[in-house]
């Protein structure tokens, strides 16, 4: 059986990794936007996001003492997605050139047609990743 100090140290490391990963994503996104003027998200940033969603689900399992249910891991992954999107939108508001949006050819109709993809896929991915992290932590921590 592991001691309380080991569990507490593991929790601190998990939260530290989540914070460091979130900040790393924010810094790489900021550097990309400052350099290009576009709000593109590159594949390494997507992989980092998925790891953050998995970590959020794991943190939910490790920290929650009362209601230990798997759907809470999915909600934790989605909450991490919301935090990532908020950071992205703040950077986009600061760095994206408004003239680029007018030249992009995007219309309100095309935005509505694409919205289910741009909203649904990240929500499903974050929920599934959070659930995966919850189950992985459940196996490690045990019931």
| Global outline | elongated
Which class do the helix and strand fractions yield? mainly alpha
Could you tell me how far the N terminus lies from the C terminus, measured between alpha carbons in angstroms?
Answer: 13 Å
Low-confidence stretches: none
Q: What's the helical proportion of residues?
A: over 70%
Please tell me how large the radius of gyration is: 18 Å
Q: What's the number of helices?
A: 5
Strand content is under 5%
What summary fits the major beta sheet?
none
Return the average pLDDT rounded to an integer. Answer: 83
For the secondary structure, the number of strands is 0
In short:
The protein is an all-alpha fold and 143 residues long. The chain has one domain. The protein has five helices and no strands.
């Amino acid at each position: 059986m592991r001691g309380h100090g080991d569990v507490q140290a593991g929790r601190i490391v998990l939260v530290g990794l989540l914070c460091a990963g979130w900040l790393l994503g924010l810094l790489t996104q900021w550097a990309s936007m400052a350099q290009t003027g576009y709000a593109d998200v590159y594949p390494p940033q997507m992989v980092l996001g998925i790891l953050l969603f998995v970590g959020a689900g794991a943190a939910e399992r490790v920290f929650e003492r009362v209601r230990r249910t798997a759907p809470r891991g999915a909600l934790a992954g989605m909450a991490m997605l919301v935090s990532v999107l908020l950071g992205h939108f703040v950077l986009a508001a600061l760095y994206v050139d408004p003239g680029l949006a007018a030249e992009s050819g995007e219309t309100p109709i095309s935005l509505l047609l694409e919205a289910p993809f741009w909203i649904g896929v990240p929500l499903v991915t974050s929920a599934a990743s959070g659930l995966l992290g919850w189950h992985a932590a459940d196996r490690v921590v045990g019931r």
